[in-house]
Amino acid sequence: MCAPKAPSPTSTANAQTASNQQTAITQAGLNAVNQVTPDGSLTYDQIGQWSDGTPRYQATQALSEAGKQLQSTTQATSQNLANVAREQSGRLSGLLNAPNDFSAQRDYLNNLTNSNLDPMWARQGEQFETSLVNRGIRPGSTAYQQQLADFQNNKSSSYNAANLNNFTTAQQSQSALRAGPLNEILALAGQGQIQQPNFASTPQTSVAGTDVAGITNGAYQQQMQGYQAGQQQLGGLFSAGASLIPLLSDRRAKTDIKRIGTADNGLGLYLYRYRSGGPFQIGVMADEVKHIAPHAVVIGPDDFMRVNYSEAFA
């Protein structure tokens, strides 16, 4: 009985690769699901094959009639806005190159502030001098000069704070006036893209790959186990044959015959039962042994052929 031949690594790898490729092709085909929505449709078509024979697919979007009209209107509107933006963009260089001059706003605010502060400080000045006189502080005295200096400092601080606030306000006002046209032009130039139909996520059908390498190796291991078991049985059979020479091996005396292998010398090995009863056994057929090792075959008194196993497999 010959040992099973080990599978070829190259053939097994090629078979595994072919199985994986076929699984991927099947999975891609299952996932190419056409979709139809009120806004349009998404259609998959096979448009040919890649160089290795793998199918090539193409996904095509098609808008509904209402979607086509809306797209046309949206494109026309966007084009009109783009034209305006192009015309207005010619003003950008002039706007950007022009200095951010806010002196007019500042002067206006300062004049407005002075018109309010001047009368107030004039009244406070009169009240200040009257207060000094009432307290007995005479003009020209040291105390008078100190009090006058403090009054002037407070007055200057009031004007300085007002002018600083006017400066900031004027600057912000001029920046807003300058940014307005820029923002309008940029907004026109940055119109959103045309909305496309929304499609549901394509279902991802998963097809498990076939473990060709594992199956091939498993089958080989089973064959090896069967071979080893057969060798053990044959060893027992040959041992029995050596002590019970010759053994009844005539095909006519057997039933449920099934060939299970071939011995190294070419003799067929069979699983069978004797017609007289008993369990399944493994052995050879005398008519085959007669052609390969005729000296191992003898005729019994019952006219059935018997085989001397030690000579048949010498």
Explain what you see.
- The structure is a single chain.
- By secondary structure, the protein is α+β, with helices and mostly antiparallel strands.
- The chain has three domains: 40-89, no CATH class; 98-189; 222-312, no CATH class.
- It is 56% helix and 16% strand.
- The chain is built from eight helices and nine strands.
- The chain has helices spanning 9-31, 65-89, 92-97, 103-134, 142-189, 212-243, 286-292, 309-312, and strands at residues 35-37, 40-49, 55-63, 247-248, 254-262, 268-274, 281-283, 297-299, 305-307.
- The strands form three sheets. The protein has a three-stranded antiparallel β-sheet. The protein has a three-stranded antiparallel β-sheet with strand order 4-9-8. A three-stranded antiparallel β-sheet has the order 5-6-7.
- A hairpin with a 6-residue loop joins strand 6 and strand 7.
- Helix 2 (65-89) packs across helix 5 and helix 4 (103-134) packs antiparallel against helix 5.
- It is rod-shaped.
- It starts with 8 loop residues before the first helix and ends with a helix.
